[in-house]
Amino acid sequence: MLFKSQGTKPYKLSKNLAKSAITAALGLGLLAGSAHAAVGEPEKEDLKFGFIKLTDMAPLAIAYEKGYFEDEGLYVKLEAQANWKVLLDRVIDGELDGAHMLAGQPLGATIGFGTQDHIITAFSMDLNGNGITVSNKIWKEMKKHVPHENGKPVHPIKADYLKPVVEQFKADGKPFKMGMVFPVSTHNYELRYWLAAGGINPGFYAPHKGDIKGQIKADVLLSVTPPPQMPSTMEAGTIYGYCVGEPWNQQAVFKGIGVPVITDYEIWKNNPEKVFGVSKKWADKYPNTHIRVVKAMIRAAKWLDEKNNANRPEAVKILSKSQYVGADYDVIANSMTGTFEYEKGDKREVPDFNVFFRYFATYPYYSDAIWYLTQMRRWGQISDEKPDSWYMDIAKKVYRPDIYAMAAKELIAEGKLKASEFPDFAKEDGFRDPQTHFIDNITYDGKKPNDYLKKFNIGLKGKEKI
Prior knowledge:
Layout: E1 3-6, E2 9-12, H1 15-28, H2 35-38, E3 46-51, H3 58-65, H4 68-71, E4 75-80, H5 84-93, E5 98-102, H6 104-111, E6 119-124, E7 127-128, E8 130-135, H7 136-142, E9 148-149, E10 152-153, H8 163-171, E11 177-180, H9 186-197, E12 204-206, E13 211-216, E14 221-224, H10 230-235, E15 241-245, H11 248-255, E16 258-263, H12 264-267, E17 274-279, H13 280-285, H14 287-309, H15 312-319, H16 329-336, E18 339-341, E19 347-349, E20 354-355, H17 366-378, H18 388-398, H19 401-413, H20 449-453
Parallel strand pairs: 3-4, 3-5, 11-14
Antiparallel strand pairs: 1-2, 5-17, 6-17, 7-20, 8-15, 8-16, 9-10, 12-13, 18-19
Helix pairs in contact: 3-14, 6-18, 14-19, 15-16, 17-18
């Protein structure tokens, strides 16, 4: 399946032919200053990358379909994985060269929460892209407490309006269950953040006691469900709501079984979402290959966002193929093209629901890594207090802006992107400015993780331990 699209006719590009063309071009001086000259040949050409069937795997699909991987002399196979654990295990075992990962996965693996191995990322795949959906039954009860204007719910819809529903369940002796995709997923932390901001305790982990369910002292019981199974699990009544990436919130709308009540853009504006992860061993063994992979994916991210999302309809067509996301075009387009449908018929403009390149989305910021680590500590996945320096050390161990910068500089030298489209690498320290756009109005400063943790009413801080 090593095909590159050329107009409407796909053709197979032989590796030897590609190499010959590169060598000839170098001999003629046509590629002077290019990555082929500066970075060197890839140490490994045949690569297999894993992904989960979500729209934010798009940079991988576009880098493949548009020939950006082949431009780097890489021959890539993309393979959907059953779930996030299988995906991570296969990267660790070397069955996959790299993968579309939850941002928390390289961090969780590196610090030893779950499967332990040193995983790194040099590329952030996107911002935003998730939502929280509840069943029709729960929405009917929630809606009684939601303010309305001109007949429509006022957004953002806070968990404050879910709290009376949860309290009624507790009074009736029934557990209130919700789904998220993985213990170290953005979805777990976003759902917990939203619930806690509304005064609902989502529960704690206690790995030092062997408890990794995350349900200690919980008002709402959160459990893992693979993304494509979220709508059917909710429809069956096993869970009453979930936090997941697209297209599985919009699928609930199309099936008429639930209502997305909030997007993660409304919980934390322009939050980091997925990353591209590889094992540290793999990165050390194949440094040129790694830089070339990052180059191809930066180009794909740019293509996805350029001209105010003008390429998104084509991207949706690609993603709707069975080998990628495999959902209907209309379901994927409902969020991918700049809108989001909440209650059936309540479609609103959300141009930044999926961001792949704008706002330096592809840059692996240390502050993004540290936010995830603070949430691991807040909910007990990190059992003990850690000094601020520990958070910085882990962030630097896992997030690799140095590799990203090498890839970016090559693209600039080749004239494929402009320097203005990247952070100023000479001045960049890896930290975003303190971020204020959270649903609870708490400011996050990545340089002061322990001070940040102290601001929350619900959650571990200081020397507290479950």
